[in-house]
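Friendly challenge for the regulars: who can give me the structure tokens for this chain first? No prize, just bragging rights.
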Amino acid sequence: MKAVWMIIRWVVGLLFIFSGLVKANDPLGLSYKMQEFFEVWNLHQFNEYTLALSIAMIGFEIIAGVAVIVGWQMRLFSWLLLLLIVFFTFLTGYAVISGKIKECGCFGNCIPLTAMQSFIKDLVLTGLILLLFSQRNKFKPLLSTMNNVLVLFFSAVFSFSFMWYTLLHLPVVDCLPYKEGINILGGMKIPPGAKPDSTVITFVYKNKGKEIEFTADKFPEDFNDTTYEFVRRYDKLIRQGDAVPAIKDFSLTNQQGQPATETILNAEGYKVFFFLRENYNQGDWIPKAEKLIYESSHQGGIPGVLITSVPLQELYEKPPGLFYQVAPFTCDATAIKTAARANPTIFLMNKDTIVKKWSYADIDDAIRTIRKIYKQY
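First reply, four minutes later:
Bragging rights claimed.
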């Protein structure tokens, strides 16, 4: 029986560690998913705290998973895990019932699960944690107290250091639609063989004070225009399809408010994209970026393009010199958040293909790479 309990501990612990590590690769992704829930619940005031909540939750998942495996403070961690999994199950259950959240982000962008898949996973995990909870007073630590504390300490140091690295730079494993090698225009098309949504035309009429719904092929036997009052008509979803492009809402608009997406992406040759959101990080990357743009455009014919969700008028009120050297285009904030996890992020493009991407913190590497390209020509 001891072996069974040990297996359950390892399964629960490894699941939490794995879930935490996948999300630690992209803490902003979990932060945006939290904002999605807050938007649905009209709790917009919590949006500015989601990154801190994301970091805390991810760190706890990893530390709690390690604690369960080594059996340290099982009375405390069994309670904490039970409360956490009940909370997760509530979230995924709400997503399933409401239909307002399609993916819950349990394993980040690398392993997307539907709301139903996440809910079933949480139900199974709840059962396993309840088993551990029932035996919480009987588990003995695998290591001495000092060694257990050291293991958890270094687990915490690794977790938060890893998240700090991915936030400062970019995700170590890029599972986003805008990863290197991706053709943006191709990603904006519906994948071949994808199944569209299956819908049926549904009518709503009022008869004797009651609203009645029926489809075009199932009109009521007593239907006539004098007793039935038309209310509305809509397409009712029968089966969810998968005809959704990987890249959505990527639309560039120039200073005159005209669409420029295909013009920019179809332009032959290399170009450098600078993605910029509100509250962008200031620092020595700005003069380096100015130098990069000047060199690449004047010596290598590689133009710079600024893609931002910040109103252009606001940028021009306090502009770094960089913005006078690039063509500015506005884009949807959600699309920029997906494309550029760091603020700002630099893309090296060849026509509409992403060749390389860097955080502003890695601009020295960007300069070296781009210099090698234009010096070849």
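Residues 74-98 form the longest helix (25 residues). Strands lie at 198-207, 210-215, 229-239, 270-276, 304-308, 327-330, 345-350, 353-359. Your move, everyone else.
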